[in-house]
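Continuing from the previous page of notes. For each protein in this section, the sequence appears first, followed by its structure tokens. Read the first protein now.
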Amino acid sequence: MTEQRKSLQNALDAEHAAVYSYGLIAAYANADRSRLVAEFSAAHRARRDATVELLEAEGTAPDAPRAAYTPPAPVDDPIPAAHLAVSVESDCAAAWYAVVENATDESVRATATEALTDAAVRRARWQAILGAVPVTVAFPGRA
């Protein structure tokens, strides 16, 4: 398997985890954030589906999602839910950053750059909700 395919599979894994996690986030997020959570959840579902199509177009059968994903910390009210969202978006940004680095195909690199940007913007939105300063980092997705 090429590095591009491996990194695409890792990005798909991050998107699967994001879709799962946004279900948990939705259950505990502040009620006035339900529209935002629904929008971000839909974005991850669309990115997940597009990534499956990318892998299949390369002749790779994507790995199935795990049955469940364990959050990095317990989620039982809106603040931990928002922190989980930051974590999810950080993980997605890191995964898509790796695709940008490993892409050999220009269209895959463009898709990955868009996905990285989207995750960074969503992360910044959650950071702002949490009152973090600064809300973003200079190079989203980098360790």
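Done with the first. The second protein uses the same format. Note its length before scrolling.
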Amino acid sequence: MVHEEKTIITTTTNDHNHHHKKPSPYTSNNIHRAIATTIVIILILIAITSLILWLLYNPHKPKFTVVAATAYGNTSPPVTTAMQVTIITRNPNTRVSIHYDRLVTFLSYQNRPVTPPLMLPPLHHARDSTVAVTPTWPVTVDELVGDDVGMVSLKVVLNGSLRYKYGSMWKSRRKNVYVECDVLVGLKKGVLGQVPLVKSSLCRVDI
């Protein structure tokens, strides 16, 4: 009788030898490196695009000039008049238009306002264009002229806010604008009408 011996091989699973497969550290580093590289490329593209837009659309300040002055009113003391000045404002930008959301103006004499503030209507400045505004204020000439003939140094002040418009839709945030114009006019008691501008200068514009 032949006895067949069977060898039973048992495989013991050792929990200590059974490990879950971990991702290669090199794979993780590659992913992080790729993400960082992508972010850097995006930032570089944004910077290049911003530089190109800045070079194309970098807006220049508007220019203001007082070109005329007129005094209206009675000729009996006190000589109460309405003083009107003509201001030429120019937008030198060929790709950017300007929108004035608010613009207040007044006359100043010896560093003090001599007229009430006057709110100008909203002003749109098309690209590469010139606009004239003619504010008029009540003012007493006797306050300005001590003698029969006087050369009076006045200051035209405009203060408000504007926005630049790039293309057909996008507008910049509101920016404060302050304009100061020194003008020298010849005023004479009892003589009203067109008054000579002895000196007019390009106004100072702060934005």
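What the second structure shows: The CA atoms of residues 163 and 176 lie 9 Å apart. The mean pLDDT is 78. We return to this in next week's lecture.
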